[in-house]
Write a structure and sequence with these properties.
Blueprint lengths: L1 E7 L13 H11 L3 E8 L5 H13 L4 E4 L9 H13 L3 E4 L7 H8 L7 H16 L11 E3 L5 E3 L1 H15 L5 H10 L12 H9 L7 E3 L2 E3 L9 H14 L17 E3 L6 E11 L5 E11 H6 L6 E3 H19 L3 H38 L8 H19 L6 H6 L6 H11 L2 E4 L4 E4 L1
Parallel strand pairs: 1-2, 1-3, 3-4, 9-13
Antiparallel strand pairs: 5-6, 7-8, 10-11, 11-12, 13-14
Helix pairs in contact: 3-4, 7-8, 12-13
């Protein structure tokens, strides 16, 4: 595979004693592992100029490369910065790998070299050393995959009734060519639940179809061993599933669709799950043989969309958003008519918003770390971390905006809401609406 090196020099020589030998180490690594040496980029302390040039090269090349680094700290000084760099490289279609003899996976390497805020490094090292010993023995760490359990000897063994479900998922995907959503709906229609007794959804189905553990292969801390435990799926079937997934991915860059204004605010009245924004593009041929295209945006119950359960509660995006904005305008007009009441209401809302946004940031940070651990445990793929990072950015942006919010401006903003940017509209709605309950034919808005 074509390999590109990246190295960041540090101010001290504590861990950068390979400054002068990096080119040689990179060349030797490529030669030993049969990679094509495509050169490397080196940044001086405090600079990211070469890293930016590397990203430009990767994005412009429209090809897949292996980005080799000595260890995780060359891509970030903490776990959050590391995952952002890894995602930037992943967006270009390339992937990263550490040239470490012990831990080659960048996320696993990051937990080892960067540690976690608030956790003793000494204790963390002892725990990781114990985990590496178990990994070398092929012992499972953490929660076993669906379809397996850990026996008294610490080995993975098959749970027959769950293994049958795993085989069914792979058969539906590879033989019957059914997608993630329809597989989840099929399982839910048959009243088959996950290990926790919950309905299946797109993510749980996708994770099973991506987990190499079902072939009897153990993968942790950069170590991969085959035939460590009993396989549920044949390697040939697993490879076929990966090939199908790759073939269904869009070729080239996919532009992001316009975000939905009420995401995370609207809930289905029937099941209590979130209403998610859905974009559908259709094309058809007119009677005169001219081709026409149309894009439709609407909100649909997440249980219906991802699990195939619940009733068909759906609203056109423009209709639901205009209804909610209209209700909010009425509420704001009534609440802010009296100047004395206005002051009290604004102060109470500002305090509530401040507490809400602080909690949102802390929750987003915890979820980011939790997601990183799942990536390190090979439970979910790296690209799913995009959602965790975006949620954290949104939470911080809302928190910063609320600190500079001026009292008494809500009514004025409502009168000009149509001219506001998307982010400003989101802040306005999140700060003044507690919840939106969507019925099939009506909407309830609580303030």
């Amino acid at each position: 595979m074509r390999a590109v090196g990246y190295f960041r020099k540090q101010k001290t020589t504590e861990w950068s004693n390979i400054d002068n030998s990096y080119e040689l180490e990179f060349s030797e690594y490529c030669e030993i592992n049969y990679h094509q040496n495509m050169g490397f980029y080196i940044d001086e302390f405090g600079s990211k100029n070469q890293y930016k040039k590397l990203l430009t090269f990767l994005n412009d090349s429209n090809s897949e490369y292996l980005i080799l680094i000595p260890e995780a700290r060359h891509l970030g000084t903490d776990l959050e910065k590391l995952i952002r760099s890894l995602l930037e490289i992943s967006y270009s279609g390339s992937k990263s790998l550490c040239m470490s003899e012990t831990i080659s996976d960048p996320v696993q390497n990051g937990f080892q070299t960067l540690g976690i805020k608030g956790v003793s490094k000494t204790r963390s090292d002892r725990v990781k050393e114990s985990m590496r010993v178990k990994a070398a023995q092929g012992k499972p760490l953490g929660r076993p995959p669906y379809g397996y359990k850990i026996n008294d000897d610490g080995d993975l063994v098959i749970v027959p009734e769950q293994a049958t479900v795993v085989e069914l998922i792979y058969r539906l995907y590879t033989r019957d060519q059914i997608g993630f959503r329809l597989i989840a709906q099929h399982l839910n229609d048959r009243e088959i639940t996950t290990r926790k007794g919950k309905p299946w959804n797109v993510v749980t189905v996708r994770n099973i179809l991506r987990n190499i553990a079902y072939t009897g292969t153990y993968s942790r801390f950069g170590l991969r061993k085959s035939k460590v435990h009993e396989a549920t799926i044949q390697p040939k079937t697993f490879k076929e599933a990966q090939d199908i997934t790759m073939s269904r991915r869009p070729i080239g860059r996919v532009s992001k669709s316009e975000p939905f204004l009420l995401s995370g605010l609207a809930y289905c009245a029937n099941c209590g799950n979130k209403m998610m924004g859905v974009t559908r593009k259709q094309k058809w041929t007119r009677k005169d043989n001219r081709r026409s295209f149309g894009t439709y945006r609407y909100y649909q119950c997440q249980s219906r969309q991802n699990q195939g359960t619940c009733s068909y509660v759906t609203w056109r995006a423009s209709m639901l958003e205009s209804t909610v904005i209209g209700r909010l305008f009425e509420q704001v007009s009534d609440s802010y008519r009296d100047v004395e009441i206005q002051s009290v209401v604004v102060n109470e809302k500002e305090q509530r918003v401040k507490e809400m946004n602080n909690d949102r940031v802390k929750t987003a940070e915890r979820r980011l770390m939790s997601g990183l651990r799942r990536v390190a445990n090979a439970e979910i793929p790296l690209d799913l971390m995009t959602e965790y990072v975006e949620n954290l950015d949104t939470a911080r942006r809302l928190s910063n905006r609320s600190r500079h919010k001026k009292s008494g401006k809500v009514f004025n903003k409502m009168t000009e809401i149509e001219s506001l940017k998307y982010e400003d509209k989101r802040v306005l709605l999140q700060e003044n609406i507690k919840g939106i309950t969507v019925h099939k034919e009506r909407v309830e808005v609580s303030f």
